[in-house]
Amino acid sequence: MNNATNRRSTIPACIAIVVCVAVVVSILTVRRAAEREYASYETLCSLGAEGDDWVSFLEIITGRPPIVQLEIPAEVPKETTFALLPDLRNLEALTLAYDSLTDRQLDTISELGLNSLNFEGDFPTDSDISRLSRFRGVQFIYVPPGNLSSEAQNKVRALLSSSIIDFD
Predict the structure, then answer these.
(1) What is the distance of C-alpha 64 from the center of its chain?
(2) Residue spans per domain, the chain
(3) In whole angstroms, what separates CA 65 from the centre of its chain?
(4) pLDDT in tens, 107-138
(5) Record's superkingdom (predicted)?
(6) What is the pLDDT of residues 44-56, one digit of tens each?
(7) How large is the greatest C-alpha to C-alpha distance in the chain, in angstroms?
């Protein structure tokens, strides 16, 4: 009888230990991601980018609020920007002032799951319209006036019909 009682009390103790370890590992993983996010953000800011954070429950765990908005001027090297953007997993709004972007760079942007995407350089042009299809999930998109012809603007509106697109 004593053996059966010991087994019954050992199982809940093992489960409690596993749950505690899982919680600690989860917290450490979230903290590590927040540290990567802030390191990337600080690097981009040191090169001229500007951003904003958001007060969040995660801040209690990580000690850092998530970065939700980032404006990157053309002076920030594209290679640096696109090497660091994947670490900014909480990013909701991104402004880029580059004159051209590769397909790979556009894929990196689309993987961020943004709500708002603003272009401030010469990108996109009429020849880039089909490449914008990867931004179907972005709610707000801004394209500088003069970048696209009227016909191209209509094509972009049709292509990204669920997005609010501002060309002014």
Answers:
(1) 16
(2) 2-166
(3) 14
(4) 999 999 999 999 999 999 999 999 999 999 99
(5) Bacteria
(6) 889 998 987 766 6
(7) 85
- The pTM for the full model equals 0.79
* 3-class SS string, the chain: CHHHHHHHHHHHHHHHHHHHHHHHHHHHHHHHHHHHHHHHHHHHHHCCCEEEECCCCHHHHHCCCCEEEEEECCCCCHHHHHHHHHHCCCCCEEEECCCCCCHHHHHHHHCCCCCEEEECCCCCCHHHHHHHHHHCCCCEEECCCCCCCHHHHHHHHHHCCCCEEECC
User: Cis bond leading into 145, ω under 30°?
Assistant: no
Query: By C-alpha distance, which of 104, 71, 100 is closest to 88?
Result: 71
Name the architecture of domain 2-166. Answer: Alpha-Beta Horseshoe (3.80)
> Is the backbone of residue 48 left (phi > 0), alpha (psi -120 to 50) or beta?
left
